[in-house]
Design brief:
four-stranded parallel beta sheet; globular; three-stranded antiparallel beta sheet; alpha/beta
């Protein structure tokens, strides 16, 4: 389990240990994500602190393993081009060194990769004149003017949003997204060369206990919660109408376990999502409702370059082939998240 001290990885470790698996965790404990080894790390797991970019760490980590769950990643938007080398180094070089170590060790098990919805870019849209289209990146002048919905790239008409299937065109629109897609391609090349089955899980907006708080890589749910804890209103960008799929971390952990322990390997890319779209403003209001006397969210009209307008998953393929169905209730999950311990 790479990245097993992190938000999602640590929950996967807990699930695997509970099922009786012997788990080895390797994590670099990047200062941007951790200020120390977390005390929630499962004591029944073997621990290696190290950077996968170091060949010696990678070789030690893969010795004798039968399954690999690759969660290690530098996360966040990656909007600042000054971070580009760090993202590529940790996400892509780290993955390449890990794959080389597995090939050298003659690994013949199965490999599960943590990917992301960000590889799609914008979500799925349909124009009444041109059918399914792929919008261009939104222009700064439109966003400044409050025109947040992407128009048809051919006729400029308003588009109707839909759900994104796994075979949708891939269009990474920031540094982090580019590195996640590169991870998928590296793992696919490794699979073709070695015959090792690879499952890529494209997470949608994950929330829950152990999220990082007050860091550049915190998710929007964590940022809103920090504001509410400080007695401040969550600041919702654009008009709050951005549609997302918020999925609980325990559901995401379970999707990983299903891919790891399935009787036969299940290869390919799969959306991991709740299957129920909500707006960012919906999420902010649900979270604020869990804080007694909290101020209501404020819609600011601000925007961030690299953000997409709507990205909502189709959950059909993961249900059919992974037998994955999200179980956590959104309202209950938000109430839990309001008081859950964050990292």
């Amino acid at each position: 389990m790479t990245g097993g001290a992190g938000f999602i990885g640590s929950h996967v470790v807990d699930d695997l240990v509970k099922r009786g698996a012997r788990v080895r965790v390797v994590d670099a404990l990047l200062p941007a994500a951790h200020d120390r080894k977390p005390d929630y790390l499962n004591p029944e797991a073997e621990w290696i602190e190290g950077d996968l970019r170091d060949p010696a760490v990678a070789e030690r980590s893969v010795e004798g393993v039968t399954h690999v769950c690759h969660q290690a990643s530098m996360v966040g938007l990656g909007a600042d081009i000054g971070d580009i080398a760090d993202y590529v180094g940790h996400n892509d070089l780290g993955t390449a060194v890990l794959l080389r170590a597995l090939a050298s060790a003659g690994f013949a098990g199965r490999f599960v990769l943590a990917s992301s919805m960000v590889v799609y870019g914008e979500g799925r849209y349909e124009c009444r004149n041109h059918g399914v289209v792929q919008p261009r990146p939104r222009r700064a002048e439109d966003l400044d003017a409050g025109r947040f919905e992407p128009p048809c790239p051919f006729c400029g008409a308003t588009l109707q949003g839909g759900t994104v299937p796994e075979d949708a065109p891939l269009d990474p629109r920031n540094v982090y997204a580019a590195t996640k897609l590169a991870q998928e391609h590296l793992c696919s090349a490794y699979s073709r060369e070695t015959g090792v089955p690879v499952t890529a899980l494209r997470y949608h907006n994950v929330y829950g206990p152990r999220m990082p708080r007050d860091t550049p890589y915190a998710g929007v749910a964590s940022i809103f919660r920090s504001a509410l804890e400080g007695g401040n209103a969550p600041r919702v960008f654009e008009d709050g109408g951005q549609r997302r799929d918020f999925v609980h971390v325990r559901d995401v952990a379970r999707a990983n376990v299903l891919a790891l322990i399935a009787p036969k390997p299940i290869t390919g890319a799969f959306n991991v999502a709740s299957g129920t779209p909500r707006t960012v403003l919906d999420m902010a209001r649900s979270l604020a409702a869990a804080f007694e006397g909290a101020p209501q969210p404020v819609v600011t009209g601000e925007w961030r370059g690299g953000d997409v307008r709507h990205i909502v998953a189709s959950a059909e393929l993961s249900a059919k082939r992974l037998t994955f169905h999200a179980k956590e209730d959104f309202a209950a999950g938000m109430r839990e998240f309001a008081t859950a311990r964050l990292r």
